[in-house]
Recover the amino acids of this structure.
C-alpha cells in the first residue's frame, strides 16, 4: 500500500510537471505575434552593389530587419531566391547561411543581415546585371529584399612577372598582389584601358612602360573598390614604381588616382638614373606623394598633380627634371572620403640633393642614419602653377657640396616672401607670388576642375619663349593652342573665353 501511494505520487507529480511544461510552451507560443498580416520592417528595399569584378568577392553590404510589434515575431524562413546556384552569400545575424528557419526577433528589436557576391567570369566586357533576393516568410506573409550587382569580366593579373605584351581596351585589367614588367621587356598600354589595383598592390617596372592614352580615351589607374564612397578615398593601392634600372618610359594621357604614391621613380639607395617622359597626365588624391623621385630624369609637361597627403612633387637626391606648363595644387586629402581636407604639414614641392635614411649596421648591431648624395643637375619649372593651403608650398634643401641647380621661370608660387629670393635672377624670373590661381573648382572633391576661371592671375602670365624652344608645348592638356592671344596662360590649361 505504501509503495502504491509513492508510485501514485510520482505519477501525479509527472503529470503536473508535463502539464506545467505544456502550459508554458503554449503560453510561449501564444506570446508571439501570429497575425497573418504581420510584416517586418527593413532599412532598405534593395541592396545594390557597384561593379563587381569576376572571381573577386565584393565588399560586404548589409541591411537591418525590424520587428516593430509589441510582441516577439518568429520568421518561419529566410532564404536566397537563387538557392544553391545564387552568386550571393548571406550572413544572417552572424551565421553564414543560404537558408535559415524559425528566426525570432524580440519586440521593438532588430537584427542584421549581411550580403556578399562573387560573380563567375562570363567572357563579356560589358557589365552584366546579376539579380537575386532575400525572401522572408512570416506568418504566411512573403516579403523580399532585392539584390542587384553589376558583374565585370577582367584580365586578372595576380602576383605575376610579365614579359613584352600590349594591353588593349577589351576589358579591364585587375592587378592583385602586384605585378612587374621584367627586365628587358616592355608593357604597352593602349588608349582607353582601365587598370584596377587591389589594396596595397603596385605596378612595378623593371623593363619599360609605354602608355599611349589620348584625351578622349585616357588610361585609368585606380583602386578596385568602386562603391561611391570610395571615389575620393586616398591610399587604396600602392604606386606605379619605375625601378632605377628602367629607362625610356613614356606616359601620355594617364589618370592616376587614389593611390599611396602616384609615380615612384628611382630608389634612394641606388646610383642608377631611371628616365621618364610624363605628359598630359592627371595624378590626383594621393595619400603620400604624387611624384616621388630619387636621382631620376623626368621631362614633364601638361600634367596636373593635385591633392596629396604629404607632397605633390618630391625630387630627392638630385637628378635632372624639367616641368613645363604643369599645375600643382595641394589642398590635402579627405579623411575617409569626406569633403573636408585633412591636415597637412609638408610643402607641395620639395627639392634636395641628398637623402638620409636608416640602414642596419651589422657591426654595430643596430640601425644607423646613412646619407647619400646626388647632383641636382637641373630642376626647371616653366609656366607652372604651385599652390596650396600652406604658407610655404616650396622647399629647397641642399648640402652645399653637390650641384643644386634649380630655376623657376614665369611661375605662380605660394610662398612666404622671406623664404625665397625671388629677385635672384639665376633662380627666379617673372614670379607671380601668393596669388590665388582661381581654378574653376578646387573645393568639390567629386567634381574638381583645375582649369582657370575668367579672373585668374595665371591668365596670359606665361612666356612663349619655352614654346619656341619646344614647339610641342603649344597645345595644352585639352589640345587648345597657347599662341592665340597675347601670352600663354600658366599651368596645364589654356583659358578659352566664350
Amino acid at each position: 500500500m505504501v509503495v502504491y501511494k509513492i508510485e501514485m505520487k510520482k505519477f501525479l507529480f509527472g503529470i503536473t510537471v508535463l502539464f506545467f511544461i505544456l502550459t508554458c510552451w503554449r503560453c510561449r507560443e501564444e506570446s508571439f505575434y501570429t497575425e497573418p498580416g504581420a510584416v517586418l520592417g527593413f532599412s532598405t528595399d534593395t541592396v545594390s552593389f557597384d561593379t563587381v569584378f569576376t572571381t573577386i568577392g565584393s565588399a560586404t553590404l548589409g541591411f537591418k530587419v525590424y520587428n516593430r510589434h509589441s510582441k516577439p515575431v518568429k520568421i518561419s524562413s529566410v532564404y536566397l531566391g537563387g538557392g544553391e546556384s545564387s552568386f550571393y552569400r548571406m550572413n544572417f545575424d552572424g551565421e553564414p547561411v543560404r537558408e535559415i528557419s524559425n528566426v525570432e526577433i524580440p519586440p521593438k528589436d532588430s537584427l542584421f543581415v549581411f550580403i556578399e557576391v562573387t560573380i563567375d567570369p562570363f567572357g563579356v566586357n560589358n557589365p552584366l546585371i546579376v539579380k537575386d533576393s532575400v525572401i522572408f516568410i512570416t506568418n504566411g506573409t512573403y516579403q523580399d529584399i532585392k539584390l542587384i550587382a553589376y558583374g565585370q569580366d577582367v584580365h586578372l593579373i595576380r602576383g605575376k612577372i610579365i614579359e613584352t605584351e600590349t594591353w588593349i581596351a577589351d576589358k579591364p585589367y585587375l592587378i592583385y598582389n602586384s605585378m612587374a614588367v621584367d627586365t628587358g621587356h616592355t608593357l604597352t598600354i593602349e588608349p582607353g584601358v582601365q587598370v584596377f589595383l587591389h589594396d596595397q598592390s603596385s605596378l612595378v617596372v623593371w623593363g619599360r612602360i609605354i602608355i599611349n592614352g589620348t584625351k578622349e580615351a585616357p588610361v585609368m589607374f585606380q583602386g578596385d573598390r568602386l562603391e561611391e564612397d570610395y571615389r575620393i578615398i586616398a591610399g587604396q593601392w600602392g604606386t606605379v614604381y619605375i625601378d632605377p634600372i628602367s629607362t625610356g618610359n613614356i606616359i601620355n594621357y594617364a589618370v592616376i588616382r587614389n593611390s599611396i604614391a602616384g609615380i615612384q621613380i628611382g630608389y634612394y639607395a641606388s646610383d642608377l638614373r631611371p628616365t621618364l617622359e610624363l605628359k598630359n597626365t592627371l595624378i590626383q588624391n594621393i595619400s603620400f606623394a604624387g611624384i616621388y623621385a630619387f636621382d631620376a630624369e623626368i621631362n614633364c609637361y601638361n600634367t596636373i598633380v593635385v591633392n596629396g597627403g604629404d607632397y605633390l612633387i618630391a625630387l630627392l637626391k638630385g637628378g635632372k627634371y624639367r616641368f613645363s606648363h604643369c599645375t600643382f595644387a595641394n589642398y590635402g586629402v579627405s579623411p575617409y572620403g569626406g569633403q573636408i581636407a585633412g591636415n597637412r604639414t609638408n610643402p607641395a614641392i620639395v627639392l634636395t640633393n641628398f637623402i638620409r635614411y636608416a640602414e642596419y649596421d651589422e657591426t654595430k648591431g643596430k640601425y644607423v642614419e646613412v646619407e647619400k648624395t646626388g647632383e641636382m643637375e637641373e630642376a626647371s619649372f616653366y609656366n607652372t602653377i604651385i599652390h596650396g593651403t600652406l604658407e610655404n608650398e616650396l622647399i629647397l634643401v641642399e648640402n652645399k657640396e653637390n650641384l643644386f641647380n634649380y630655376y623657376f621661370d614665369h611661375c605662380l608660387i605660394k610662398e612666404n616672401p622671406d623664404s625665397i629670393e625671388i629677385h635672384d635672377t639665376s633662380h627666379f624670373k617673372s614670379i607671380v607670388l601668393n596669388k590665388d590661381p582661381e581654378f574653376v573648382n578646387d573645393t568639390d572633391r567629386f567634381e574638381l576642375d583645375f582649369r582657370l576661371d575668367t579672373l585668374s592671375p595665371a591668365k596670359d602670365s606665361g612666356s612663349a619663349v619655352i614654346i619656341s624652344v619646344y614647339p610641342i608645348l603649344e597645345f595644352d592638356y585639352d589640345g587648345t593652342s597657347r599662341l592665340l592671344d597675347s601670352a600663354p596662360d600658366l599651368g596645364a590649361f589654356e583659358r578659352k573665353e566664350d
Summary: The CA atoms of residues 285 and 307 lie 5 Å apart. The radius of gyration is 32 Å. The longest helix spans residues 2-31.
